[in-house]
Here is the input.
Amino acid sequence: MFKILILLIVSAGVGFVLRQNSGLRKTLSRTTPITIFILLFMFGVSIGSNDSILSNIHKDGVKAGAIAILGVAGSIAATTVCVKLTNRKGGTK
Here is the structure.
């Protein structure tokens, strides 16, 4: 856990120092989607090769779907409340 946090802090520091280098920024912006696709592919391979995950996919999939639906519904509800509270005409009373 600490290794990941230290790596994140160090990489953020390197990015801060090199932020003026536009050539490096252009190169990284082109390679970022490729890196993400490779990471997603490797994640899928690791899930597909894990028997315990595949044997429980029906239960875990239903739970994940319910969490996703409830998360979206909660976000919509919270946004609706915030919009109604901030869009009052005539100021707050």
Q: What stands out?
A: The CA atoms of residues 6 and 12 lie 10 Å apart. The helical segments are 2-17, 22-48, 51-55, 57-86. The two ends are 48 Å apart (CA to CA).
